[in-house]
Amino acid sequence: MRKILAFLRSRTPVLLAQLILVGGLAIGFHWYHDLPTAWHIFRVPSLSPDFADTRTVTHHIDCLLKGRDPYVDGSCSPWHLPYNYPPIWLELWHLGVNSSTTNLMGGLLAAMFFTASLSLFRARNWVTGTAVFLALLSWPVLFALERGNTDLAIFSILTLGGLWIGCSRERFIATKQTLLIVVLTVLKIYPVVAVAGMVRNRKAIWKAFIAGTLALAALLITAGSRLPLIWHNTPQGGYRSFGSVPLYMRIAECFGRVGVNHHYRVLFAISFAAIGVTVGLVARRVIAKLLPSLDLNSARGFIAAGGLAIYVSVFLVGSSFDYRLIFLLCPLMYFIEELNERITIRSCVAVAILLLFLWCSRIDVFIGKLLLDAGIFVCSCAWLTDTLRRALEPRSESPTTEDSHLVSMVGR
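and the corresponding structure tokens:
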């Protein structure tokens, strides 16, 4: 009983955020008799019918069952858009999923995210409690829930799977991590970069390489010739989006230029990545003072590195809707773990900046947002680069005094 009460106390901010969200939507539904309009209580622009991204799966299953190719024929979609997810999602028709089960599937995605949040976030003081509460009511989370996007499932599987693997015996960890990354890659392609979290030391490089190879092989087997169509059908715009394309467009607009030059955009993305990698390789002492060392031997370190790698990769690729920023909750969790142990200036500043970014990401253009967008990407690159550099050194560096308690604590 004491363990249950201690668990619930540490999850109070998570439960409170969920209660406010569900209660607010219930009140909005009572007032407006319509779920899409109910989201306006939280100032979330909604689409009607509701669970728009869930319908990308369920309505295109209808198209498939009618003998049409959903990657070419968008007539079954409420917005007449072709299908742009890996084929594995269409196999849900075997479980009875179709357009009539959209609300059920959207609710299940939300339930998965709530369960993952309840397992991932622990708050042991008012600082971390406030941070967790604000994070779970931030714009990317609300946007993902309103759309019923499948990124909710990816986030949940990554976090719950990572925590489950952390309870395994040492000899089974690499195998289970490989299986987890294969499943995630088949579901959404981009999680293949989570293999970065497997590089615990030099000996683990080959395990990460094998995991990445198996994940890509599984993707080719399940998706095959559909991959070019998935890329072609995926929107690449600047509306409610982040990434190298929206950032390039916004900076270009500041100088009076409109549109996207593909060659300049690629050069722009490479330049930002190079800055981040260079900082990670050169500014070792600065990073050690400003950021905690990611312990890839712990479950939470693996999750934080995986989320960080996903954010960096999707930023570089081009454009992603803001709901994909939920993967920044993974490194945010790592800062919160340090603050649970003791209040440090570096983690307080990092958490404040991340929360500011998550809450302000709905604002399309203003100079502070541009600086936050670019700065967080560069810092993420630097942190991930520094983590991998430490792991690949012949002799692992001993953690700094400030990190020593955290390294022992995150594994719990």
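(Above: one complete record from the training split.) The longest strand covers residues 241-242.
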